[in-house]
Design brief:
Strand order of the largest sheet: 1-13-12-4-11-10-7
CATH topology of the largest domain: Rossmann fold
CATH architecture of the largest domain: 3-Layer(aba) Sandwich
Shape: globular
Length: 500
């Protein structure tokens, strides 16, 4: 194991951690060490063991074997309460907050400050303000959590952790739903935590953030700890190689397809307050990148093309024929599909088996006299699963149990079965590990080579530059620029158009 020598006694050491579930060896002699006042990035593909290791630390899972030491003393963490008493707090992607309660009430929930049986609200208010001041942010303690932004809710979670005396804070994909400006504020909070000697374990698929905020990086693969290295001097290629177990010759394996004439033509597309007089076209075999700052109208354009929202004006033509798209059903019938930004909430029914998710938009072709032909359905699913290298034990597996990359492939499989010719990808690789991203890019190459027209909406500028044949940039609901020579384009050039 390639591990950097620690110049100081670690605050936390997890060593030789083993954990198995029925049919899965999730952790194999896993190791992690964390120093006071550092940010340790915990990296790896989906299924690498990161979440299991953190759940062992949080007391949500009991390890089969291995040791946890805090300040050199062996710790017994058999429950979340044990973890909290040991100074460990975990902030998951899905926040553990009560939306109807205020920020103050959430911070002190279950630990209210009382006198003679009454809650001392003024004291709690002052304590909450002090916690927010400690991490350099301003949040009204009396605001209901449901009225706060995602970034503010995250701050409430951090303040709650500090109020419980946390010395170790784990952040699981903390930037997944934040704007760039909010990420910068989050990093400022993390630096305040470091200055207070609080250690942070930072889990993320965004490698740029690792190089910006982390001191060291621990990489896991197949349940094992591959290595821990100082971020200073570490290259992106080396980090990717450690994560996937092989060299990726090109992080963005773009293959230029033979681009044909325009297929989808959009003129003067409008929706009040969101999209303003937008016109563009996508050619056969082309990957058209669409980017801009959050709130610029990118997703709204895709929803209008798919019929998820009603447009106020504009014309949509496919292969020269004007389309009357009033609903997603209309769009699907015309061969237009949308891979939603939020695949879990809008792209899949998580409680249903993968087979049924695959069949939902295709029941017409699998049904006869109102009955589903199971054999045909299963055969079609098996064929698409093989073609997309969809990793699933069997077709009755719940969609909720798949990794992010495989969920994205499942959504794509159902649309390919419906013979979609225009594919709208909205943040196609959000929340997906580096190896799964690479596979999605290869799939996009294949689709373009088959003459499909692709609109790729992304806030990841390296992805936009790496995978697009042409780039459109939006600002405040309008198209602010087009970049045809992608090979010579730069991130500052795109940002300048996005902030016009």
């Amino acid at each position: 194991m390639d591990t950097a020598r620690a110049p100081q006694e670690p605050l936390l050491v997890m060593d030789g951690v083993e954990k198995s579930f029925p049919g899965v060896h999730a952790l194999k002699q896993a190791h992690l060490d964390l120093r006071r006042g550092e940010v340790l990035a915990l990296l790896g593909e989906n299924g690498a063991g990161k979440s299991t290791l953190i759940k062992v630390l949080a007391g949500a899972h009991a390890a089969d074997s291995g040791t946890i030491r805090i300040d050199g003393v062996r710790a017994s963490i058999a429950s979340p309460l044990d973890a909290r008493r040991a100074g460990i707090a975990v902030i998951y992607q899905e926040f553990n907050l009560v939306p109807t309660l205020t920020a103050r009430e959430n911070i002190f929930l279950g630990r209210e400050t009382t006198a003679a049986g009454f809650c001392r609200r003024r004291r709690e208010h002052a304590d909450a303000l002090a916690l927010f001041d400690r991490i350099g942010v301003r949040v009204d303690p009396e605001s209901p959590v449901r009225a706060l932004t995602i970034a503010q809710q995250q701050v409430v979670e951090i303040a709650k952790a500090l109020s419980q005396g946390a010395r170790i804070i784990v952040m699981d994909e903390p930037s997944a739903t934040l704007t760039r400006q909010e990420v910068e504020k989050l990093f400022a909070v993390i630096r305040e935590l470091k200055a207070a000697s609080i250690a942070v374990i930072y889990i993320s698929h965004r490698l740029d953030e690792v190089f910006e905020i982390a001191d060291r990086a621990t990489v896991m693969r197949d349940g094992e700890t591959v290595g821990t290295l100082d971020v200073r001097g570490l290259t992106r290629d080396r980090l990717i190689e450690m994560m996937v177990g092989r060299k990726l010759e090109n992080e963005f394996p773009k293959v230029r397809a033979s681009i044909g004439p325009p297929r989808l033509e959009v003129e003067h597309l409008s929706r009040a307050g969101a999209v303003r007089d937008v016109s563009f076209h996508i050619r056969r075999g082309e990957v058209l990148g669409l980017t801009g700052l959050v709130g610029s109208g990118r997703t709204e354009v895709a929803r209008l093309l798919f019929g998820a929202d009603r447009r106020d004006g504009g014309t949509i033509r496919l292969d020269g024929r004007t389309l009357d798209i009033r609903s997603p059903r209309d769009a699907i019938r015309h061969g237009i599909c949308l891979l939603n930004e939020d695949r879990k909430a809008q792209g899949l029914v998580l409680g249903l088996p993968v087979r049924e998710n695959f069949s939902l938009p295709n029941l017409g072709r699998f049904s006869r006299l109102g009955l589903v032909r199971r054999r045909a359905e299963r055969a079609a699913f098996a064929g698409r699963a093989r073609a997309l290298r969809l990793s699933v034990p069997h077709d009755e597996t719940p969609a909720s149990s798949l990794s992010g990359g495989n969920q994205q492939k499942l959504v794509l499989a159902k649309w390919l079965e419906s013979n979609s010719e225009v594919i709208l990808f909205d943040e196609p690789t959000r929340g997906i590990d580096i190896g799964a991203k690479y596979e999605i890019y290869l799939l996009m190459n294949d689709l373009a080579a088959r003459g499909k027209s692709i609109l790729m909406i992304s806030s990841e500028l390296p992805e936009v530059l790496g995978m697009s044949d042409r780039i459109l940039v939006m600002h405040e609901g309008r198209l602010s620029g087009e970049i045809a020579d992608v090979a010579r384009a730069t991130q500052p050039q795109i940002l300048a158009l996005a902030m016009r």
